[in-house]
Amino acid sequence: MISLDWKERLKLDTADFITRKIPQGDYDIDIVYNAYPKRIDNKIPSEVIVFVAKTLAGKIARNADKYLDFYDYLWHKKGENGRLVFAYLMQKITKRNPEFFLDYLKKILASCDEITDINLVLNKAVVPLFKKEGKKYIDILFNWLQIDNQHLHKSIINLFTKIAKNNPSLLKYIFKKMEQGWIYPNEHTIRDNTHFLKTIYKIDPQLYFSIYDNYKGSRNPVFVEILSHALLPISEQEGYDKLKSYLENWHKSGNVRIKKAAASGLKALKKKKGK
């Protein structure tokens, strides 16, 4: 708990940092929170850093697009604390100008190789946007899946999962967007869609089985690989029997990729069923 005296001190120091330091290109925000005397495991308490970040965000939100160099510095130069400040700044300012700052965040996250940092930014800056215009921002994030960054892909698929669990009415919409990528796949398509199909089973088993029913006659190797890799423990005997028959049919294919995927799927299905 930050005392009232220290809250006032941090507010004053933050205002001074904005007025005197930032205009001179001095972006070392840690000068503000390092003054706080208490440490936890020799580190500044996160609540202090978050308090400074929120105070800062409140003061620059109206002209947030003028501070891009500062945001870049926080993200790239100030380590864990800087990225925490960055995330809470984005939480505030992205709401005011989502189109501009989502484009900015896309560029920032495209080259990030730390999934915890990606998750932090997506959860703070992007998740709140879904409350009012879910489909709009699903479309935007779906386009981010064209970026060649497997960490970003994993974070986005996990975010889609969270959205679908909180709002099951969006599950089919997200799947249809994912499904569009099957026709023109990239190197991430099979992994991303396999992951999301497993999510569908946990949220809506009926939809999961209907997808397999829809593609049971497919001879497209990508489709079969996605479906064969997305198998989960199937407790329903009827569902198990259907999937087994589809896999057996694919296994008869003369296409090597389809045959291999089906063989792997059959082995996994029997193992998961305990047979």
What does it look like?
- The radius of gyration is 24 Å and the shape is elongated.
- By secondary structure, the protein is mostly helical.
- The longest helix is centred in the N-terminal third of the chain and has 18 residues, at 4-21.
- The model has no long low-confidence stretch (mean pLDDT 93).
- 74% of the residues lie in helices and 0% in strands.
- It has 15 helices and no strands.
- The protein starts with a helix and ends with a helix.
- The protein has a domain at 1-96.
Brief characterization of the structure:
By secondary structure, this protein is mainly alpha-helical.
Structural class: mainly alpha
First-residue to last-residue Cα separation: 56 Å
Query: Helical percent range?
Result: over 70%
Alpha-carbon Rg, integer: 24 Å
How would you spell out the order of helices and strands? Answer: HHHHHHHHHHHHHHH
Q: How is the main sheet built?
A: none
Shape: elongated
Average residue pLDDT: 93
Low-confidence stretches: none
Q: Which band does the percent of strand residues land in?
A: under 5%
Q: What is the strand tally?
A: 0
The DSSP helix count reads: 15
Q: How would you name the oligomeric state of the polypeptide chains in this document? A: single chain
